[in-house]
Recover the amino acids of this structure.
């Protein structure tokens, strides 16, 4: 079987025929084969009662719609059934552990959902008079205060809509700061272990990305950084704790070298969950760091979004924070939205988004912070690190760690050395976890490790939950070593779908429903 | 602490299994002098206390549902059926991760496939993605995409484009190597954008309905753009307009971007919202953001997967089409559920109600002495000229309990000649009483 350089198979496997007899419907008890909306909806049905307006003269000019809308509708009961059935095909944190390294899949408190729906938060418009939304601006100021205290930084840009958007914000601030000094610097240093968004972000705004090689244990050697420094280097983008789950112990020396060269230190805050209340990034020499509210601060992942990525900024970058930002005045917090409202010393590089940012995520994150408090936040970080090391302790004799057994932070990294000779790949191992009732861990990331498996349990898992998870992985390892290939290569066997043909999806992309040709429909009816 | 399952006994047992004496041993890699000993923040609070704190902040704000409400300019107050908010709070939607393991996320993937189809049909385009963060970031991503396709770097922006959308484009595009030619504000809907299109233009970005409410005939603009080898990027901020107005895809648009908030999503003080992005099939490999595609599984059953990922950051890194790692999942779900409940019959009727309400309101307001309507055409939003400073008038209206629209000076503060203009939105939530209250309050303020 062909593999890429990280040990990931590049051709899909095929399954043996299922031994379970089919039903008439194709359903399997509670698992319903739900058709597409476009196959069951009708164009003349609507699930919303609206009264046709009385006669009026339209003012559409010549632009009244002529092209048919061509969208089916469903009544309310049919709608409910369609989406409830779809939901039953999804894994979720509410159902089980996600050992996803770097994603911090912790519990999403329901209190957060309740407060996000308070009328004065959920039902206010960003452009209504500011005198009618003072509490909303104060909420943003309060969130900013917590983020600044937790990180020891000087200012915060709240508006980025996601982590990668926060990275972009931080790097744009750095680019603006450099231009303000009248300099041109074209290079950004990125470790080879970095998340793909780091080089993508730097390249997007015109920087050339130069890779910093990692030590054998994945950490960054200050000498390797110094060797690459020049007046053309704008910044380094480091993740700390790094993507291998380790604290970059030389971070202060790296920061000093970067600053001495006139460059800036961008920190990817994806792994902030390990150090809240334990270390302040401002004291490590960081100039900008995005914080993933949907990771560290429990806002729900929602099947892929929305997220939020506010960016904390050092003294050197504070002036460049984009519009809008909250300014603390004697009378209280003020939302600054335009260049006309700026004071001397405020030089925003521009605007990241229309309106003010992800207020729905701000309130959820603040609710989490208020609930935990300074003591709870510190305890959460400690439990996150404790849980990852407990998983490490339970697996270290059976699974291989790339730089030997050593203390990790909130996530533990394994490679696929322990699977050598078994015929089982990291991918197969992950799919077998699905049959056991677990979402797989992060696989094939970071790229610096072959067949990487990155496990981050978070502080939300009980000891009993971790004990069962550890026991399950131990069993899987032993089955792999005992040669039980079918269990892995045929996995998953019990999920709503077997392995899907991703090659076929990419080769002939089918990205929307197409009405079948009449002869296809006729043949199906026979 | 209610979210942390361990007892002290658990922690001790776990430390023993790891083989360390205390939790501090696990943080040994943090240099001693950098260790934090306590944060200057309040201690843990129970639910009751947190509800009170946030409830007090909420109570200071005037919510849209409780007053006559006519504020738009890029985000719109619509009624969202109870079914929508209920379904998006189901555990398996709310707390699920990105569908990178498709065997156990067919729920998410199927609704994304349906969403993509709905967006393509609504906009009249061949293909749509699984959503962007919002309309403004979708717009700048479209400009960057046009640059990749045409290999040109000059973007022309209509004066009817939302000023904050313009600001987003003007902030990012130059850093990405583009120049931006932004036409002056166009409150009367009479700009000559054709004159600004030449052989160096990569794209022309036109919003319809414009921020001032005008319906723009996109076909001649598309024709001129195509003549010189440029692309038309059509923008909308009110998705409900597509129920009654000819969609950009039928007028020659190459890329269509917009804000989907109007369908299924709350106002939420500006976010989270949901960006819509659609284009021609031939440009699909240049599209940013997530894409969901149909395939089969190992037993030949139809299924869905994220696809064409080689465009994205986790594969291509510094050669990716963009740095995006998220879509607006749950907001896209809210959009697709609401759109399913509406169907084309419901959407068209909803759009007619919106337009009818705006027509009624425009007639009443422009009948007031000193008030004139700038629009010949509009959907559910229009601009009026007032006999005085619009921002001050809006504050006076607010003091009388009416939220009467967005003064143009809020979006274009440095422009004194626009200070007497007010953008007014009217949706299905407005009743005859609301309109009467607005007209009466404005008459009093102007007297």
């Amino acid at each position: 079987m062909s593999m890429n350089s990280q040990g990931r198979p590049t051709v899909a496997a095929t399954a043996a025929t299922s031994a379970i007899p089919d039903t008439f419907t194709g359903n399997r008890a509670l698992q319903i084969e739900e058709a597409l909306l476009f196959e069951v909806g009708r164009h003349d049905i609507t699930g919303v009662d609206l009264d046709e307006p009385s006669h009026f003269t339209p003012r559409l000019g010549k632009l009244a719609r002529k092209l048919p809308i061509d969208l089916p509708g469903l009544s309310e009961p049919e709608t409910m059934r369609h989406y409830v059935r779809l939901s039953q095909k999804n894994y979720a944190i509410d159902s089980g552990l996600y050992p996803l390294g770097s994603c911090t899949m912790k519990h999403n408190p329901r209190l957060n959902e309740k407060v996000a729906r308070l009328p004065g938060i959920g039902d206010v418009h960003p452009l209504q008079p500011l005198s009618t939304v003072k509490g909303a601006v104060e909420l943003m100021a309060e969130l900013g205060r917590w983020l600044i205290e937790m990180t020891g930084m000087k200012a915060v840009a709240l508006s980025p809509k996601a982590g990668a958007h926060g990275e972009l914000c931080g790097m744009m601030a750095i680019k603006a700061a450099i231009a303000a000094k009248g300099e041109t610097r074209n290079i950004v240093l990125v470790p080879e272990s970095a998340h793909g968004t780091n080089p993508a972000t730097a390249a997007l705004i015109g920087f050339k990305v130069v890779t910093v090689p990692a030590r054998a244990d994945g950490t960054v050697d200050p000498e390797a950084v110094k060797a690459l420094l020049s007046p053309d280097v704008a910044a380094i983008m480091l993740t700390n704790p790094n993507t291998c789950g380790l604290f970059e112990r030389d971070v202060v020396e790296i920061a000093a070298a970067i600053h001495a060269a006139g460059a800036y230190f961008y920190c990817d805050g994806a792994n902030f969950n390990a150090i809240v209340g334990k270390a302040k990034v401002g004291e490590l020499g960081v100039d900008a760091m995005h914080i993933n509210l949907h990771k560290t601060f429990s806002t729900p992942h929602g099947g892929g979004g929305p997220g939020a990525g506010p960016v904390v900024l050092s003294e050197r970058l504070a002036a460049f924070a984009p519009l809008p930002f909250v300014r603390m005045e004697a009378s209280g917090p003020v939302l600054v939205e335009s260049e006309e409202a700026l004071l001397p010393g405020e030089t925003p590089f521009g605007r990241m988004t229309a309106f003010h940012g992800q207020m729905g995520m701000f309130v959820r994150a603040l609710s989490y912070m208020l609930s935990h408090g300074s003591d709870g936040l510190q305890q959460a970080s400690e439990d996150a690190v404790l849980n990852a090391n407990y998983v490490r302790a339970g697996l270290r004799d059976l699974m291989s760690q790339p730089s030997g057994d050593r203390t990790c932070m909130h996530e533990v990294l394994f490679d696929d050395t322990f699977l050598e000779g078994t015929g089982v790949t990291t991918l197969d191992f992950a799919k077998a976890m699905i049959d056991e009732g677990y979402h797989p861990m992060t696989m094939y990331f970071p790229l610096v490790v072959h067949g990487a498996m990155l496990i981050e349990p978070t502080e939300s898992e009980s000891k009993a939950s971790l004990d069962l998870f550890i026991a399950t992985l131990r069993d899987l390892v032993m089955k792999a070593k005992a040669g039980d290939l079918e269990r892995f290569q045929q996995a998953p066997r019990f999920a709503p779908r077997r392995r899907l043909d991703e090659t076929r999806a990419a080769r002939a992309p089918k990205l929307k429903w197409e009405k079948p040709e009449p002869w296809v429909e006729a043949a199906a009816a026979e | 602490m209610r979210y942390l399952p361990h007892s002290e006994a658990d922690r001790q047992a776990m430390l023993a299994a790891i083989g360390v004496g205390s939790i501090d041993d696990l943080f040994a890699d943090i240099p001693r002098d950098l260790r934090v000993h306590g944060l200057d923040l309040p201690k843990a609070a129970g639910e009751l206390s947190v509800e009170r704190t946030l409830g007090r902040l909420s109570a200071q704000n005037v919510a849209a549902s409780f007053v006559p409400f006519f504020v738009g300019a890029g985000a719109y107050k619509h009624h969202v059926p109870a079914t929508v908010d209920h379904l998006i709070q189901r555990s398996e939607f709310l707390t699920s991760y990105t569908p990178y393991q498709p065997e156990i996320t067919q729920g998410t993937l199927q609704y994304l496939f349906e969403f993509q189809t709905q967006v393509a049909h609504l906009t009249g385009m061949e293909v749509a993605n699984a959503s962007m963060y919002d309309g403004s970031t979708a717009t700048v991503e479209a400009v960057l995409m046009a640059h990749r396709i045409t290999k040109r770097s000059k973007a022309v922006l209509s004066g009817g484009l939302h000023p904050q959308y313009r600001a987003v484009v003007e902030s990012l595009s130059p850093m990405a190597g583009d120049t931006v030619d932004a036409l002056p504000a166009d409150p009367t809907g009479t700009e000559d954008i054709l004159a600004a299109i030449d052989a160096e233009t990569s794209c022309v970005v036109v919003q319809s309905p414009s921020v001032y409410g005008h319906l723009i005939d996109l076909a001649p603009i598309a024709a001129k753009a195509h003549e010189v080898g440029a692309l038309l990027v059509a923008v909308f901020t009110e998705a409900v307009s597509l129920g009654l107005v000819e969609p950009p895809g039928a007028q020659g648009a190459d890329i269509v971007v917009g804000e989907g908030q109007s369908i299924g999503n709350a106002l939420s003080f500006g976010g989270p919202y949901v960006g819509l992005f659609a284009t021609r099939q031939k440009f699909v490999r240049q599209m940013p953001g997530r894409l969901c595609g149909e395939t089969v599984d190992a037993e030949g059953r139809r299924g869905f997967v994220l696809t064409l990922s080689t465009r994205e950051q986790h594969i291509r890194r510094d050669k990716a089409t963009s740095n995006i790692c998220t879509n607006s999942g749950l907001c896209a779900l809210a959009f697709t559920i609401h759109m399913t409940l509406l169907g084309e019959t419901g959407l068209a009727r909803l759009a007619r109600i919106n337009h009818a309400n705006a027509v009624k309101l425009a007639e009443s307001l422009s009948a007031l002495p000193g008030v004139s309507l700038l629009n010949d055409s509009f959907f559910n939003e229009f601009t009026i000229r007032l006999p005085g400073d619009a921002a001050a008038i809006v504050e006076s209206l607010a003091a009388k309990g009416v939220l009467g629209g967005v003064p143009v000076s809020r979006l274009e503060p440095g422009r004194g000649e626009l200070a007497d203009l007010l953008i007014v939105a009217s949706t299905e939530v407005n009743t005859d009483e609301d309109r009467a209250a607005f007209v009466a309050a404005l008459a009093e303020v102007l007297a």
